[in-house]
Design brief:
CATH architecture of the largest domain: 3-Layer(aba) Sandwich
CATH superfamily of the largest domain: VSR Endonuclease
Low-confidence stretches: none
Structural class: alpha+beta
Oligomer: single chain
Largest sheet: 4 strands, mixed
CATH topology of the largest domain: Endonuclease, Chain A
Strand order of the largest sheet: 1-2-3-4
Helix content: 40-55%
Order of helices and strands: HHHHEEEHEHH
Number of domains: 2
Radius of gyration: 18 Å
Length: 169
């Protein structure tokens, strides 16, 4: 089956978040090209046309896409693959004040990776950006609580940023 045909079928069978994640992943891995994405959207029903604006192939995983989509739909400004000096990129930067990484046991289980993750969080805090790390269960089993923690952390980080700006005037 041609890639575009299989991706179209997958998109039609999934909820919006996972449809977006499938398209993101297909682009990121080179399964399809940008021009094929354009062609895909000419073949999708009108109800799915709005998803085009949410495609971002920089996500390293479907879980990153799902969280990005949920946060943007909740009104947050979300940057993907955000660099912090001294470490690797964070999956997301939320409202310019909080970094977020979405982990999994598959990629974050050995001592070296766990140590890197701690170092990465320290670099983020050192850059003045509080850092959060979540697992798939936080996305799929307890999103309301996870979302509340993200919302509060972002709110408090903005308050602290604004307070520091006011004090430096």
């Amino acid at each position: 089956m041609p890639p575009l045909v299989s991706l179209r079928q997958a998109v039609l069978c999934q909820n919006e978040e996972h449809a977006i994640a499938s398209i993101d992943s297909a682009l990121r891995t080179g399964f399809i090209t940008k021009s094929q994405v354009d062609r895909l959207f000419t073949q999708l029903p009108a109800r799915l046309q709005c998803l085009r604006a949410e495609i971002d192939p920089t996500a390293d995983s479907g879980n990153e896409t799902v969280v990005r989509v949920r946060l943007r739909r909740a009104g947050f400004v979300v940057e993907t693959q955000f660099p912090v000096p001294g470490t690797s990129r964070f999956d997301l930067l939320i409202d310019g004040v909080v970094t977020l990484d979405i982990d999994s046991r598959r990629w974050h289980r050995d001592d070296a990776q766990i140590s890197w993750d701690f170092d990465k969080a320290l670099c983020s805090f050192g850059a003045g950006l509080p850092s959060l790390r979540i697992l798939p269960r936080h996305i799929y089993e307890s999103w309301p609580q996870t979302s509340a923690v993200i919302r509060r952390t972002v709110s408090e980080a903005k308050e602290l940023r604004d307070l520091r700006r006011a004090q430096s005037r």
